[in-house]
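Notes to self after the call with IL:
- keep both proteins in one doc
- input above output, always
- annotate only the second one for now

Protein 1:
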Amino acid sequence: MNDPFSPPPNNLANDVTDNALSSDSNEQLFILNFGTRLLTAFTDKEILVDIALETLADFSRGKRVAIMSLDNKEERLDVDGVYSPAGSARPKASFPVEGTVLEKRMSQKVMSVAPLCVENEVPLPAENGQAGANRCLCLPLLGASFRIVGLATIEIPERHQLSFLEQQQLKILSTVLAISLDNAKLFTRIIHDSLTNLYTRRFYEIRLEEELAKLKRNGGCLCIILLDLDHFKNVNDLLGHLMGDEVLRQFGTILQDHIRKGSTLVSRYGGEEFILLLPDARVEEAVALANRIKDLCSDHSFGDNDRKLRVTVSGGVAFTDATESLSPQDLFQRADTALYQAKRDGRNRIAVWENPKTS
């Protein structure tokens, strides 16, 4: 099998040195610059993967492209995304690393080519292959301090010989991708609460400011739901903080499992308080969601196999629209006022802020 990664002959190197770049090369460098800028512009991993798949496919002319990340234990490669003739996809697939050809290709820390095998549209390196078959181009993803964070694999035609310029472009792209994925992972850790895996209060505050600004520009409405677990201090005092943490985790799961993904933002506001941000939601929708969460909480058996307990939650719903000009603090104060009313009325209930001007 010919090596597509051998250095260019000296006369080619001299030509590149002595002559101006061709218009095609200029165009390629412009696209490369644009692609790398895109990759560094986002901290959302899904967006990064989508951009990277398309960019790698364009520069390699590959039939299939996959991006895989090492899991936290560095034992498996989880598939982040795949580009194929059928389109982009996010298969729920992972592959073991230790003692495999994947480990061998990553440990080399350099771009290499291997025989190809394909599993669920994912191009993978193999130990052996047939003559004349397509091959697997392996791009180890090296993050900070040259630490391997994953692997990009590309199915390339058997007869396609990558030029020196193409090789360098792919090396640059893989380096930028690795660092961007590393940054995205770090950003994800920062904006998520370590106990419940919900968003942090600070991230909620940032998003709320964005949504209020959008409300002024585009109109519409916006709601928030402030939730507080009833008598939570008793759980910590009587059953211990480990049980309290378990209750918080399980309540966080209830919230995550019963919201509208992609639109509702759920955050742990602090302690046993949680807050939901619902852009473009009418107050009736927010109240219905809050009551559904209240009922799910009261029906749930919290704890572990040894100890079970019942916990209830109270909530306050606040709303605004484009006719007002509220600060984030003003909107929170409305929700907090409604929550206080729910607590005062006996807990395990949802209250809605009432405008004193209309009541």
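Protein 2 (the one to annotate):
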Amino acid sequence: MVSDLKGFVDNLMKKVALGVVANLARAPSDGGTPVDTGWARSNWVPQIGSPKKDPSGTYDQAKAGILTGDQQVGLAAIAVGYKVSRGPIYITNNVPYITKLDMGSSTQAPRGFIRRAIKKAVTVDLLTLSSRG
């Protein structure tokens, strides 16, 4: 029984984290991060145990079309091996202007797009759970 509960919580945490990153990586018209170079959108990096402290790559690299794979590496780590016993999941974005984007500085996405992306991931997973009876 306890192992069933642990497995359930592990899977729920995994699904919510993957859903949040997916929502934030969507096109701005679908509620995702505004895009100029793609640097902000690619910097939603999930990590287990501790938050990522620095941005992935640089603005100039993103402008040149060179994006790091940190987001994909973090997503794979969560999808393949996340368990609550490994620690919390952090989803960070360390580009210096992410707060301004969330405050509505871009016409591509309304103010508060981050909160809405999180709420959507949590709501979808809770609705899925409640529909199972």
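Annotation: The two ends are 18 Å apart (CA to CA). The longest helix spans residues 2-25.
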